[in-house]
């Protein structure tokens, strides 16, 4: 192997440390998805830099912080849509101030608007 090959492969301790950072960041995101979380805030709370956390998401999760947070929010929204809460309340509970913004994000993630999703999961469509 060439020197370049070795330098491109992170050490096992580096991989383990990055995996732990990703785990810790995801835990915060899963617990506080409805809050106004920022990459900087989460990085500070898990004692790393903004750049390092961006690298961790890109390398290990194959996505960015915002995309990961949106996915967590959309999965929680899908769960809530199985229940009786109005869509506007669900939007606020998962971190959106505006129902229209929530509906647009939900459609981009799930391929349909929240009301249609609700109808389908309840077997009305």
How many DSSP E strands?
Answer: 0
What is the overall pLDDT average? 91
- What distance separates the N and C termini? 58 Å
Work out the radius of gyration: 18 Å
Question: Unreliable stretches, pLDDT < 50, 5 or more residues?
Answer: none
Structural class: mainly alpha
Largest sheet entry: none
The helix-strand sequence is HHHHHHHH
| Fraction in helix | over 70%
Shape call: elongated
- Give the tally of structural domains: 2
> In percent terms, what proportion of residues is strand?
under 5%
> Helix tally?
8
Task: Please give a structural write-up.
The protein folds into two domains: 3-64; 70-121, Arc Repressor Mutant, subunit A (Orthogonal Bundle), CATH 1.10.10. 71% of the residues lie in helices and 0% in strands. The chain contains eight helices and no strands. Helix 2 packs across helix 4 (50-61), helix 3 crosses helix 4 and helix 5 (65-80) packs across helix 7. The N and C termini lie far apart (58 Å).
